[in-house]
Records
---
Amino acid sequence: MLLKLSLTGLKGRWRDYAVLFSGLMIAAGIFYMFQSMASNDDFLSSNSPVAMTAIIFQLGSVLLAIITLVYILYANSFLMSMRQKDYAMFMMLGAKQRKIALLIFIETFIIGLLATILGSAIGVGLSSIVSKLLTNQLDIQVTNFSVFSSKALLITLVFFTILFLLAATINASSIVKKPILSLLKANETPTASRRRPVILSLEAVGGIVLLGIGYYMMDNIAKIGLLALIIALITIVLGSYFVFHSVMIFVLNLLKRSDNLRLKKLNNFTLSQLSFRIQDYTKMLSMVSIIFALALGALTVGLGFHNEIPKMTEQTSTYDLLLNNAQDADQKQVENLNPTLDVSYQLKEDKNTIYFNQEQFDEEPLNAIYYDTTPKKTTYSGKELANDEAKMDSLRTLLLPEQQEKELSMVPEDKFRSLSQQTSSLQVVQVKDFMAQKDRIQKIVTENIKQNPSLAQGQFAMNQKYDIYNLYNETFSGLEFMGFFLGIAFLTMLASCLMFKILSGAASDVVRYDMLNKIGTRMSLLKKSIRKEIAVLFLAPGILGAIHVLFGLKMFTSLLTEPYAGIWLPFLIFFVLYLLYYFLTIWLYTDIVLKKKESS
């Protein structure tokens, strides 16, 4: 009988549980996806270009595990707020506390377990999609990758099972210890919001000062080091808390003093609703702003790393294509690249020395890179190369491995022609757009290695621009995908946490909206008031979180040449997803507080 009543209660709140359930599934699915990428040993061992992404995805799993723990705690709180009155009624009907505790434990654990299993199934699909995106991004063909990983599934099930066992135990022990009256009246207990103006002012100033310190530390992390990151983390968390705990109350009180605003339609009711609940929402709004910053930051930095790939490749490469022993190369393929520069430097070599025609380098100087504070490109004439061994090393890096060990010599054209050794050539090519031509260049590079097998050995495989591009692409693509999926996972969880918090207080608002309805308030005004109230609760942490990100990107100036480039894209993605959660929360909240009124 008790189980039947419980199932009836669950059925009656299926919309709320659907939101909770979907959030848990997404968390489990993304966690599985990260694990399947990082723990697929056969895939990683047989595809060396993606081996570095294992560490990246493991790091993502750790971060996701931490935020998932926070998310489940809030989701668990929402679950209890929905069901505690039902449990109180069961106790009033004579149900034993032991039975209630067992029922709560089973409900919580079953919901979590089902969400984990279905989420893992979603994760298999995500793994398939992401693996294709990742390998396409890395421009490689992969083998031995299976979207289903028993190891990843086991890790996911064990992790989430432990979490839900913990949550179920906490739920069961907390509910049975509370008096029945406390359970029945829990959502009707107000939170005091009156505080002394002096304390309010001190908190507001303190919050702004703490945020300023945190932003300064992030801007100077390169100078101060790890200590700056620790200080920034502490001050920004505390600053966010004080801002919501004081500044929002100050602003709401200020708005309520304006008769033109306060007395217009239901604005006074809406402002009073926010003032009444703001202290209870302080911790939640602070947490949401921090996670919002982490989520948006992860996505922004991830896309930023993607933009860095061609930039860093360009900074560390002098030519788009090198052809050693170029007389063996297919020149028709080179012509199809429509090169903007195509030069062949002649060379002759004996046992110890390689000779170059100096006049050729005077006519077409060698492109080189020198390092000041940052890599800078320059050119060296034949005369400069002949008189400076350090500059000659720029030419040495373009040669075959066995040639790099020899002495290099620039000689006049007549002397070069008098040498009896066979003439070979080093062909250097530049194109208008390397990224657009990289597939064609890759084919020519492959042929060049076949003609010169020593190029495939160790560090000598990295003298081509295409190989350097692959190295950066391997590293940064993993960071890009980790940032993208972490960002989406964080956003889903933070928006769900905020939504659960708002919905958990909806039951106590029914009486207030019922009273307004009875005195003749139009339904359109009630719905508009709901939209405004929820908009403030969504917008406030979103704005502060965005500010955190704008300052936080300063920390990545050492890794990203332009951390703010293309920032509109991740902001747009977040705005759309955040807006969807806003509308979903309005729909669910309205259904709770106005459902009875619309039907009457």
Note: Residues 321-464 form one domain.
---
Amino acid sequence: MEIKKITEGLSVSPQITTADLPALKAAGFRAIICNRPDAEAADQPGHEEIRDAAAAEGLEFRFLPVTPGIVTDETAAGFGAALTELPGPVLAYCRTGTRSTTLWSLSEAPRRPLPEILALAKLAGYDMNGVARRIANGGKTPTDTGDAKFDVVIVGAGAGGISVASSLKSRKPGLDIALIDPADIHYYQPGWTMVGGGVFEPEETAKTMGSLIPKGVHWIKSAVAAFEPKDNAVVLDGCRVVKYDRLIVCPGLKLDWAAVEGLEETLGRNGVTSNYRYDLAPYTWELVKDLKEGRAIFTQPPMPIKCAGAPQKAMYLSGDAWTRRGVIKDIDIHFANAGGVLFGVKDYVPALEQYIEKYGAQLDFFHNLIAVDGPAKKATFRVAKPDAEPTTVEMEFDMMHVCPPQVAPDFIRVSPLADAAGWVDVDQATLRHKTYDNIWSLGDVMNAPNAKTAAAARIQAPVVAENVAADIDGKSPVAQYDGYGSCPLTVERGKIVLAEFGYGGALKPSFPKWVIDGTKPSRAAWLLKEKMLPPIYWKAMLRGKEWMARPEKITASGQ
């Protein structure tokens, strides 16, 4: 008997026998629901036999049979009613547990968001994507037939989504393209480090989404609830269905603030800030300006995260401001990094270490932030050093800049598009999905082993556009992505270490060394970051102008 827990009040299992009832009673169950019709199999005990054995153990029983493949709205409603009426916890069973889980999923639809239902079912080992459309429709069978249909549907209108829409439209002007995104505002997120350093105003990093959607591209202002790749369909919140010939998935990732106990309650006050949020980056600069003495902690969670250099960029710009004000000697700087190295590409580490020394910062490797007590100004870290038992360490602070843990969005993690870790599963060269050959992905949400940066999306967008266009023409992929990413490390106001690298940490400089030597801090790299990259982003990248971003062709020798 294999029991799988869905919630505190419900577990499901394959077919049970009368001999299982004493063990179920001992395990604390108080009621049984049978969702299997009698006589499905020759060796199957009838529901009355189970009912009588359950009664002998003092367990209540309900019979709600479901014919395979026919889960009616009425039966789903009856299941929900049974869970309300019966004493819990309840065990529901059928042949494998799938029908019971399906009934629970549909009955919970009015009360729980779709991603949560799919995730709980998946944790128990049941894939409910096949009924996602019904769940999104409040548990009812959809009746609408007026679904929209497009040549290409793009999920996510961030840096990757708008760029790939523009690049694709420039190659195939006649394509009918839809961009799906519920956001009103589009943010230039690489600028938030500069806001937190007092260089940019926050308003410089935001524009209305409507002003950026490429001409001729349909904007569907909605959230995605689920994917049905076998039917070439995307299910939106409210159960609207959008069909596609080809799909591009780039919704970014999820900042998991809730993963750190106490963090959400104290963000934006008690000296706790983060440049990873538009509304908090100005508070970073406020704290830096006001701090005259005490301890400043800068945290970095386990990988993967977007812009892996951002947590230390905040530290360097803060250290520079304190140095210029002459208070650096009175400020105890700590860089609490869940990883074991300062930066993943070793060629850039020596230059960064000079600034660690300049600002007197202490490197606390293998320190992962797990809890924050804002009013008490205390942070708790889990310290997991190699070859040592994990411990917890508590540190007091006067200011703390937090980089939150980051995961794939819920609706991606529970979808058929995801790998075991929850990221969209693509070929790292062509960015085409490994299972569904009419789906591509780019940006932070896919699982290629590259740095998650806007600079990476700038290179990926033309690769995807080129390969989608080739697929439309009946050709094999023609462009490949080499893992390029860029991280302009703002080591002081006016100087940047311009890290540019590809797969495996291979250096990928964009300029000759006499223009910018990326392994050394330079004024030229700062000017690039401050003056050139924002207009390149707004006026070139998002408009499909691929300056220094032409895709690399796939050679005859392969990838």
Note: DSSP finds 15 helices and 28 strands in the chain.
---
Amino acid sequence: MDVRHLTFELSVSPQITPADVPALKELGFRSIICNRPDGEAGDQPLFGEIENAAKECGMNIHYLPAESGKVTDEQGQEFGALLAISPKPVLAYCRTGMRSSTMWALAQAGRLPLAKIIEAAKSAGYDLTGVVRRIANGGRTPVEVAEAEHDIVIIGGGAAGIATASSLLSRVPDLDIAIIDPADVHYYQPGWTLVGGGAFNINNTVRTMGSLIPRGTHWIKAAVAAFEPDRNAVILEGCRVVRYKQLIVCPGLKLDWHAIEGLPETLGQNGVTSNYQYHLAPYTWELVRALRSGRALFTQPPMPIKCAGAPQKAMYLSSDHWRRTNVLDKIDVQFFNAGAALFGVADYVPALMEYVKAYDIQLKFQHTLTAIDGPARTATFIRTGADGSKETVKESFDMIHVVPPQKAPDFIRVSPLADSAGWVNIDPATMRHKAYANIHALGDAGNSPNAKTAAAARAQAPVVVHNVLAALGKMKGEARYNGYGSCPLTVERGKIVLAEFAYGGKLAPSFPKWLLDGTRPSRLAWLLKERILPPLYWEGMLKGREWMVKPELTDVGSSA
């Protein structure tokens, strides 16, 4: 038997035989639903045979047959009704399991998010791309679909999306562009680390989305449900279809808070905080100021994450405050890193280690946070040994700064655009999708091996803009991205190690070494982070001003 689990209550399988029924009973199944009509194949047992075997085993069984490729909306509803009344767990079967999976998906439409339905079926080996519109439409076949069409559709109104739209319009002002994003507000996330360190006002990190969408751009305030790249279409929740000539995908990534047991229930209380949340960054500063003695833990999950230096920035700024207030010697500061190194680019590690020693921070590598008990003030880690062995480690805390695991958004991970790890599958130089020539991606959701930072998105935007316009016949040549990223590592209030690097960890400084040596802590780098980068973000990057990020071009010609 080939039993595949969709949920705790339901599994599906290809055709079963009467001899399989006792084994299903042994596996714990209490009900069977047959979705295959009798007579489809000569070697197919009749439903009556399966029914008799089920009754002998004391199992419930139902017959809800559907023709291959012709599952109706009504059958989906009836499947849901049968599932509701049947003793659990249930096994549903047809020839391959596809019809059973389809019926379940239609029955769950409106109850579970579309991405979770598609992902569960995909994990079981079933591709529901063909019925994604029906799922998005509440399990019903769309009768009348209102469609929109634009030359360029951008998924995501974050830093990457708005910068790209603005850069496109700065070159070709009459372009037909739409941005799809359901959010009401836009955040300057790089500022949250400084908020958590008491050096920045949280109110200066947020603006309304409407104030930032470039004039002349259509804002579709909706969530994306799925992609149909073979039809040049994006499906929105509610089954609205938006078509495109060129698609740019930059929705950011997903913070997976639920991957750490107990974390969602205790965030923002019991000394548990994270600068990765807008409303929690002020709580970080509250905890830091209140702590006069005890144990402070800082965590970093497995890569990739956005701004790989952010976990330790919080630690350095906190330690600096405790040093300035003469309580650092009473606080046990520990850094639990799921990785094996302090920072991915070795040139910056010596300067960081000077601060690790000065603050007397204990480094705990190969430790992955798996659970938090807030009321008990206890964190659970899995430590991986040099030989690959794993052990569980519990640590007490008075405060803990948590960085959650991160992954691509659900609707990206289950889409045809994703690679095996769930990220948009793009060429790392051109940012063009490897299978769909009219799709590009930038920012955090792509699988290019660069650091996921706002600085990287700022450098990627002109590359994508040029290549999209070239595809539309409005530019010539091909732009290429070199992997540039920047991570201003705030090692103390007033000093920063400005890490700038490209693909392969190659140093890529923006300033001459005599002016600013990024491998050493610098007051100038702090002023850059605190005073220059915020206006550069709001009035430069988001307005399409490409200062210092002109891309490399090959086969350059004049614009069309």
Note: The chain has three domains: 4-136, 149-253+408-554, 257-403.
---
Amino acid sequence: MPLDSRIDEITDRIRERSRDSRDGYLKRMRAQAEQGPRRAHLDCGNQAHAYAAMQDQKGDLAADRVPNIGIVTAYNDMLSAHQPYGTYPDRIKAAAREAGATAQVAGGVPAMCDGVTQGQAGMELSLFSRDVIALAAGVALSHDTFDAALYLGICDKIVPGLVIAAATFGYLPGIFVPAGPMPSGLPNEEKARIRREFAEGKIGRDKLMEAEMASYHGPGTCTFYGTANSNQMLMEFMGLHLPGASFVNPDTPLRDALTDAAVVRASEMTGLGNAYNPVCDILDERAYVNGLVGLMATGGSTNLVLHLIAMARASGVQLTCADFDAVSEATPLMARVYPNGLADVNHFHAAGGLPFMIGHLLEAGLLHEDVRTVAGGGLSAYATEPKLDGDRVKWEPGPRETQNDRILNTPENGFAKTGGLKQVRGNLGIGVMKISAVAEELQHIEAPARVFHDQAAVKEAFRAGELNRDVVVVVRYQGPRANGMPELHALTPLLSVLLSRGHKVALVTDGRMSGASGKVPAAIHVAPEALLDGLIAKVQDGDIVRVDAANGKLEVLNEGVAEREIVHPDLTGNEMGLGRELFSLFRATAGRSDRGAGVVI
């Protein structure tokens, strides 16, 4: 199927806009690649330190006879998604030896859990952890002894940070190795109901705790379609996973076989052989457009709007918020996965999952097939699914028919004609809305503003009954410069209660919402943020605010707002405690949210 003209035009615009930065990036990568095997440039003393613990493989490493694979791991056993990675290094080393290669843990990167820090002060470090991860991975790979890398990470900021690092070391081949989602627990809609009842005071904390523990109950990624699982989707659409690797449960024979296969493939792609396949050649403008299509077709996380812009810049590609909007207009919504539906990612995977989706999007001309991937060849390899052949993996054609058309459907029979995200803009600035879970009649609201400077104040007003009306809740001073741009997901149950009472409600903020953003219309990531004198800083209680997803509008309708004087609140409380004092430089130098909110790139 020929490429859809709209996708072609979007890609051309990105390519032209990125010409100089992409050319400069590739020139740097080619210069690094031309130096040959990395270890050859180390002095004998350098190499001796690097190989001291490698026992009987020292000679092969010193002679540059075998590929050496660096493992960059985000393992910790506090994150359920990353707990399975504890056993991966030994497995990878054994698989590398069998493949005629060596492997070493190059280094670890931090991995914080947004589920633990939601509504807490620690969430103010969350976005910046992406840049810390990129920096830490850079330190790990700076030893310059590796011919390829395996990146072990799944969750919210971890994959984007690792991609930034992989792009920075783009002359190295690299594969992202997932660990899979936990088995299904308490249905997501039941969990949401219990959260609403707790917010209304109808049940106690004991019942809430019981429901939460039944939802998050074992090793693996959380099963709703939030940022973590959006990351996994993205790695397949962009060709950095092996095909079909994303949603295979942990600690299963197929999961183990996929990990072994990633090691074999990494050893084949190095510059020591004839199939050199560096990350820099995979991460071009076509790969990012494919990622955008996947994001829109699945109704994925709003956090990826920030992360994709930052990831792309690391590989010389210049994305803008307008690109997301244009791709969304061209891409039908093909999946209904919680919070956009009742199903979780295990149900999505069983219904046909990513192989079904990628195959149909290719047939519809909505994806670039002619891209480089870690699997070799084009994106059509990702329309296949992995099966066990003994203890090894083989790939067979993916499903052509959905197993549940309430969860997954073809582009022609999609759940909406356009994708799950929408850009909104106006005198309040530029923002983004996730509309895949928002009823159409709720996507336009004009109502008086109620202005807050933190989540706690919103909760107090809710408990006092002050929000029982049509209202646009404005929560400002939540941007990267103000306090690190925390997620405001703790507000979702409260605002959902107001919706259930028949009120028209919207949220407008320069902060973030969770990847699990649901049915409440929310214009988020508003830029410029309040601390940078964006107009959101001048909005007052009672001003009429328009949030209109259908027409892409975000406006305050009162006259004279722009002439008001800004008096910034005291934000010193954001500067201390739980390590926030260590991140003052990050807050001071963070970029705008519509440019990725980064401090590294």
Note: The domain at 421-595 is CATH 3.50.30.80 (Glucose Oxidase; domain 1).
